[in-house]
Every structure is written in structure tokens, then in C-alpha cells.
């Protein structure tokens, strides 16, 4: 999400479909981002938009409310545009009548006044009094009754006030309104820009109150879950099995291979080195392993931890991002072995190859991976061939080109040795992020991951934010479960709620 501009919350204006004398406002809306279709209906029905929004604000410091943008040509978009056009055409007819009918204009001015007042900070009492006086609805109604309502003059005043109150990013939009002479088009433009200013203010308020909102989010989600737990004592059964499996994994003998052993059991003294000997299990280790396991969760498995149901869609998004980065890093690693250090020493070439590869990887959503990977392989080989030629270096021979395409195409298989190693190392990186933090984990990246450092940082931050918020909310429940899995001294040594 982009940086927050200056602004504050606001009353949502009326809807054009239900109130014919008011345009539909551009108030904050968010699409439902999570799907709980595979879970018990009694729990699914309780996970509502409020809890999702609370969780999103709590874990995302850069959270922003955004206006819902309808796809071009969509039915809903066409209906909304038709309704808007009909409303503004109706307003134009009213103002053009003889004598003019100002009833709709008064409704608009009343709503504009409410929006302007809502954009004020508590200390801006002088501006509040000025707006109240300039847009005194009783006085304006009397002027309208005598046919003396000066809409252009009022619009000019509103524009001046918008210039004072808008964030700098909206200055250009407000200035463009000053060039509109038609009163109806001017009012329409005013409402559009005021909608943006309202959203700015909402995001400013959220940003200003972030610490309080985070704490409220934690308390709200925990209380909501506790209410459910009181009604359904078995609500933590899946959570207990999830942590039990994680503890069992860490207690089992490590798998063969250094990367596999690191990813499975290393508590991460640093991202690039393994622990010399297994350490006693701790709540941190068990939870870290448990969270990592969620990124490998079978979508057909209904026994998803109850404490993470609200976050399941987010975890699925992270899993998809992880899979894409695994393939991207594998493609870059294979390609670099054919291209030499000169070509991959060029940041411009690497960035271009990453952009091309990531764009082509989007086809994985609609085509079989093996089929889509053929397109990736051929395009990457072409980019390497052309770049070598442009730099005056020897181009790939036909045999090397065929070998490169073949090795890249083989990355589509999950069993591919390069893909497997990269996957293990990314999981190890994420595990280190949970223990050390993202920035420290980036200091010593395992081989093959340095070219996707920026992408890993983004993935790691999202994963850490999600798990940290979840631990803050459900830490007391995790502590109780872990008491039955770990020696008492180890559980008491690190309270899960404070991780």
C-alpha cells in the first residue's frame, strides 16, 4: 500500500439509488478477501467483515482504506454510471427551469457542508464557525425560496475551503475544478474530489491511531474468540493438533541434506548457518515451525487451526507468493550458470529478467505449470541471447540454448533439485525472520537468494506481521496448549503472548 496522506473519518453521504437528490458518494469499501467455505458453518458465520478489518488494521502498519474500483465495462459499473448521469441530468433540469428549482442543489450543499466539517481537526474552531456561517442552511433555504441562491458563488467558496483542507496530493485536482464554468459539472467534480479527501482523512486517522487500533484489535479479536470458545469448548482441537504436529516434527531426527536439516530444525542463529546441535524445544521454535507448516497446508484439509481461520486467505496469498519466488529464484540460478558473471553482474539485466519472468509466471494461474514453464524458458533464453549479443559477448550455442531451455522447463517439477533447494532455503529464511526479524535475516542470505532480496524482504515482513499479530491475540491459548507439549520450565521461560 502507498504512503498515507494527510486527512480524517467522515460521515458517508446518501446513495443515489435510494435518495434521488443526492449523488452516490465514494465512501470507503473493501472487498471480502478471505474465504471460509470449507469450515464449520457455526464458526464461518461468526467471522465477519468487522473482525477481518480489525485484524488487517492490527497487523498492517501501512493499512489504507481504498475506494472500490469496478472493472471497466462491468455491469455494476455501467449501472452506477447510468445512475450518476441520470442524477446530474436531473439536477441540470431543475436549475435550468423557470423559475429555477433549488431543492436538489440545497441537498447537495447540505451534504457538502457535512463533509467539509468532517474534514476539520478538533482544534480548527475558526474554520468550523466560518463554514457554519457561509453554508447556513436556513439562510440558503430562504434565498432559494426567493430565487436568489447563488450556486456559482457558493461553489467558489467551497473550492477555496477545499484548497485549505486537502492534502498536497489533491492540490492539482482542486485546481482543475476552478476551470469548470458549468455549475452542474462543477458540483459533480467537487463531489468526486471530496470523496478522495474523505478517504485521505480516514487513512490519516487510522495512521494516527495505529497503536490504539492495534491494541483494540488484539482485545477485540481475543474477546470474540473467547465468546465462541465458551459456547464451543472443542474450538481449539485443531489448533492443539497443529501445534502437536509441529512439536513432533522438531523432535524427530532431521532429514538428510544440510538444507533440509536447516529448514526442519534450525532455530536460526543466523540465516546462513545451521545449529551445531539440536536445541531443546521452546514455544518460539514450535510456533515458528507451526506457522511455516501453514504455508504448506493442503487446501483440502479441513482441520485448519481455529485461531488462524480469519488469516487463512492471507496465508494462501503468502504461499502463492512464496511459490512464485521459488520458481523465480530457480530460473535466475539456472540462467546465471549459462550466462556468466558479466551478464548477471548487470542490475539492469537482472531486473529486466525478473520482470519478464514474473509476468510470465502469472500464466501459472490459468495454465498447467509444465506448459506455462515452456513459455518462460523460451523467453528467458531469448532475453539472455539478445543481451549477450548487445554486450558484444559470445552468444549461447544451439546446444547450450537447448540445455538451458530444458533445465528451466524442468523447474516446473516440484521434485526438481534446484527448485527443492531454493524452496528449503526460502522456508529457512522465513523461519529466521520469525526468530531474528527480517532485517537481520537479510544480512546473510543463503546462496541463490541474493537476487530476490527485495522480494524476500516483502514476503518476510508480511509473514512476520501476520504471525506477530496472531501471537498477540491468541498467545494465552497457545501457552496453555504448549504446557502439555513442553517441559514446564521451557514454557514458563518464554510466554507466547510476549513473543
Automatic annotation (TrEMBL):
<dbReference type="GO" id="GO:0036126">
    <property type="term" value="C:sperm flagellum"/>
</dbReference>
<dbReference type="Pfam" id="PF05794">
    <property type="entry name" value="Tcp11"/>
</dbReference>
<dbReference type="GO" id="GO:0001669">
    <property type="term" value="C:acrosomal vesicle"/>
</dbReference>
<dbReference type="InterPro" id="IPR008862">
    <property type="entry name" value="Tcp11"/>
</dbReference>
<dbReference type="GO" id="GO:0010737">
    <property type="term" value="P:protein kinase A signaling"/>
</dbReference>
<feature type="compositionally biased region" description="Basic and acidic residues">
    <location>
        <begin position="8"/>
        <end position="22"/>
    </location>
</feature>
<feature type="compositionally biased region" description="Basic and acidic residues">
    <location>
        <begin position="29"/>
        <end position="41"/>
    </location>
</feature>
<dbReference type="GO" id="GO:1902490">
    <property type="term" value="P:regulation of sperm capacitation"/>
</dbReference>
<feature type="compositionally biased region" description="Low complexity">
    <location>
        <begin position="258"/>
        <end position="281"/>
    </location>
</feature>
<feature type="region of interest" description="Disordered">
    <location>
        <begin position="1"/>
        <end position="42"/>
    </location>
</feature>
<protein>
    <recommendedName>
        <fullName>T-complex protein 11-like protein</fullName>
    </recommendedName>
</protein>
<feature type="region of interest" description="Disordered">
    <location>
        <begin position="249"/>
        <end position="281"/>
    </location>
</feature>
<comment type="similarity">
    <text>Belongs to the TCP11 family.</text>
</comment>
